[in-house]
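#struct-help
A.M.: can someone run this one for me? Single chain, 241 residues.
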Amino acid sequence: MIKVFVDDGRAAGQCLPTLQPSDVALLVAEAHARRLPVVAHAPTVDLALAALEAGVDGLAHVPIPYEDAESDDVVAALAARRAFVISTVVAIAAALGVPLVGSLPRSRLWERISTRWRRHLGLAGRAVPEEATLRRVLKLLASAHEAGIPVYPGTDAAFPGVMPGASLHVELEVLRDCGFSDHELLVAATSGLRRRMGWRLGGAHPEGRAELLVLEEDPRESITATRSMRTVILGEKVLRF
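D.P.: on it. Structure tokens below:
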């Protein structure tokens, strides 16, 4: 996979040089010629629309709409391109000054999170929370889901307000509130994007590395059951909780 960085810095109050649509189109053409999918980091709606017009296969983050009409434009462009979007709501929310932890503090997993990481989860990118903007982001995701756009959960890296691993459980909870069913989220968070990209799936098979997660509860009934981890198997490593 190729990730194209299309960001002029406006979303963070900066001014950065960035790729032009013609540059992105050229990169996409070269990548597709080598059968490589292309995703775009494009945080604002206009940049996301330009990247989709240039032919990218998906958006690495849901773009931030500052007007309701912009959400409709993004959904229409995603549908026309038959593209997907990776949500990363937890990172966007923290950047907007509204860090999310959901019901994580009431789960057993919270006991395994250090005080330092708990503080990190509470970090906000802005002093004044932009809650209205976050609501538009969530509305965009809900509209994309209703339109049949493939949405895959993701969190970005150790962004302020994001903890690798733990924040994915929060992401799933937020997406459920956007209208996704527990089964849809289970598929999207496991095999969804890997199938879309043509990557070999995990599990247990003679030719690959074992990737198994044993839970105490059934995630098909509630996606929050992903927090009830008992055992994780990665190759020859067995981690017990």
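A.M.: thanks! Residues 61-200 form one domain.
D.P.: also worth noting: The chain has a mean pLDDT of 89.
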